[in-house]
Design goal:
Strand content: under 5%
Structural class: mainly alpha
Distance between the termini: 92 Å
Radius of gyration: 37 Å
Number of helices: 32
Number of strands: 0
Largest sheet: none
Amino acid sequence: EDGYALEFASEELKDDFDVVLAAVQQDGLALEFASQQLQGDAVVVLAAVMEDGHALEYASDELRSDPEVVLAALRRRGSALQWASRCLIKDKAFVLEAVKLNWDAFQFVAKELRGDPDVVMAALGHRGRALEFATEEMRADPQVVLAAVERDAEGLQYASEGLKQDFDFMVHVSKINFRALRHASQDLLSNKVFALEVISREADALQYFSVDLRGDRQVVTAAVKLDGSTLEFAAEELQRDRSIVLTAVREDGCALEFASAKLRKDWYIVLTAVEQNAAALVYADWDLRVDRTFILEATKVNGRALEFAHFEELIRDEELLSAAAHQLLDSLDKQRGPELEFTLAALSRLVHQGCATQIVSAHEQLLKCIVVNKLDHRTRIVVQALFGTLTQYAGAMLFHVAQCASTDDKDDAGSWLRGCAIDILLHWFMEDRQVFCSSAGHRAAILLAIGLQERIEMVGQGSSPSKKGEVSIKTATMLEEVMYFLSEEAPDILRVGSKSDESVLAEVSMVDARFLLNAWFYCNGPCSGEFSPLETPRSPVNSAFCH
């Protein structure tokens, strides 16, 4: 239970192999109380140093010269090298292995090896701060110091004063790790030319320069143009400067947080910040956040701003909600990636707040998002989720998407609109078929079947056998499910002479009856399941089949 209790054992027990082994396995430092004979036993000593590397202090001189034992100790604690024999800490091959195993051992190697480039670089490969234990010559070597900084910005503090004052060298350091500048000489950190050189690439470096430079208009302007949030490090008088704050919030709206209290009341500055980032509204003056007139203006420049209004009555205000939806819909064409995903998510929330009808009217814009971002899987998922939400709150959404699915695709615009609408209908069909259990739903299902059959025929023409097989597994299976659904939900809809739901067939016939006929043969004909498309061009003439 307590290996260190060996201290109080009899001399006989301290010389007992099993007792001592059990003790050092529990607490390696118990080796101090083992007999001299067992302190020279390789098995006992290995067990001790594997539990606590510092147990090497109590090993025999012979074992402290044993590379295997010392390396075992270093695996536990790099500082255990201080107990190794002189011959080992002067052996370059062993020392290289030791510092690669544990950089902390570097401080205990022989002085001549702490000035050896190979050994020093091996140590720096693990921790830049190892430079502290290198010789003065090494700490004045530019390549060595750069290696230290590359690994750890704190390594620069151990470089020679000459290097920390060298303009060109410190510019190079700033390119590798600008955070190392905190250890540059005060002369350089007060040098405006140096500051502009560094800040032109790394605006955050502003925080390390002298108070005078952080109050220099030219230096601060250069920083906030590159990264508005660096306004945080500017002197107070510049945080009160309207021109500099405006430059900052144009680059990062949330830089408003660091503007003076007076400027956080400035309508123009706050609106500029909100336009760049809706979340900037939380840093505006309280009076603006509860001012309905201002919130309306903020919503017009960034629809998401309404989410950051303070009062619940503002968030539920119909005029504000409408303005938010209008602005977000207008911005869809200009956005990509995460920014677009945030906008779509905001629109989805507005659907829940009563803007479904307004958003449904922009269904073509939403479908276009799928085309423009067709390679972005995440964006497609967000668009599909928004369409799913819209079907719950606006029954007209199904009608509009189905209308797009029936678009003539003779031109590019019709083609992408039709294709995206088919994708959305398929997504809905797989997620919630209850949406299709109505007259409008039946029409949408027929259009979905037409679209799937069209895809099968398009892929089938000139495709390789493997590609055809892939289609039959995926698209054809989906087509069969849609046709089965129609046969169950609307059994009369495909029967010749049926008078039920004539309006639905009439509308479908305007798109292309041939594909619907092919789909029926594909799933129900004498060769159902086999790929055998009719090779006639799409033509409105075929609409006669539906009648």
